[in-house]
């Protein structure tokens, strides 16, 4: 899912695995138009990785390095079909007020998007799982 999403963004002019700020590391995709930067992270790691991703973007908004940051995570019902202990929307929800307060005095958008499946079927291949908590490609 993530690979196809990033490929789509690249086709629309986004840069893959790009830096948004000094010392914060890369995000999955960045779009820059006239100095207005948007960052996207599609989180496939554990809940700690999800926290790192959203904190990185909140900090970049505070530093005015980005105008918007979007974290995409599965909802809990989808997460059970993915890797073990993958971060999910419901686990992040208790922290929404904290992140809202982190960016309230700064121009920008910080958003967490929960994704869900359309349907389930025994007729499609299972997503292979690695031992590191990440899906195999």
The tally of strands reads 5
Known CATH architecture: 3-Layer(aba) Sandwich
Regarding quaternary structure, what we see is single chain
Overall pLDDT score: 89
Helix content: 25-40%
- Structural category is alpha/beta
Major sheet characteristics:
5 strands, mixed
Radius of gyration: 15 Å
Enter the CATH topology name.
Restriction Endonuclease
Global morphology = globular
Separation, N- and C-terminal Cα atoms = 10 Å
**Given this structure, which CATH class is correct?**
Alpha Beta
Proportion of residues in extended strands: 15-25%
Q: Count the helices. How many?
A: 5
Low-confidence regions: none
How many structural domains does the protein architecture include? Answer: 1
Record keyword descriptors for this entry.
137 residues, alpha/beta, Restriction Endonuclease, 5-stranded mixed β-sheet, 5 helices
Question: Could you write a compact summary of the structure shown?
Answer:
The protein is an alpha/beta fold and 137 residues long. It has one domain (2-115): Restriction Endonuclease (3-Layer(aba) Sandwich), CATH 3.40.91. It has helices at residues 2-11, 47-62, 76-79, 89-92, 96-103, and strands spanning 15-19, 26-33, 36-42, 68-74, 109-115.
